[in-house]
Design goal:
Blueprint lengths: L6 H51 L11 E5 H6 L20 E7 L2 E7 L3
Antiparallel strand pairs: 1-2, 2-3
């Protein structure tokens, strides 16, 4: 008696594996993209938090009047030690350069908004 698999058994096994891959791959890609987006949002929050700390310790850069803005470059935050160097965009993998935080004086305190072209 011969031991081994027949061609039909091997083809059925391969077909089942391909079917499983076709079902799992889109959901796996969705999970990866979702985690990258969440990581990007966390990076944005970290940059804004660094700008908030920068404004708290460097009061001369605070916008004085309501409606007035001050711009803080990410490179300034890195040079002053509020952010580490080499921050990358988790979605694209590229370094975050040219981004800045707009600090606006409002009736309710300071508001922070990150502007970027990446």
């Amino acid at each position: 008696m011969k031991k081994g698999f027949t061609l039909v058994e091997i083809l059925v096994t391969i077909g089942v594996l391909v079917l499983i891959l076709l079902i799992v791959t889109p959901s796996l890609v969705g999970v990866i993209n979702n985690s990258r987006q969440k990581s990007f949002e966390e990076t944005e929050r970290s940059i804004i938090k660094a700008a908030s700390l920068y404004i708290n310790y460097n009061r001369e850069y605070r916008p004085d009047e309501i409606g007035q803005n001050h711009y803080i470059d990410v490179l300034t935050l890195q040079d002053e030690g509020y952010l580490e160097r080499g921050i990358t965009n988790p979605i694209t993998g590229e370094l975050i350069v040219g981004a800045y935080v707009i600090v606006t004086n409002t009736e309710h305190g300071f508001e922070y908004e990150l502007e970027y072209n990446f």
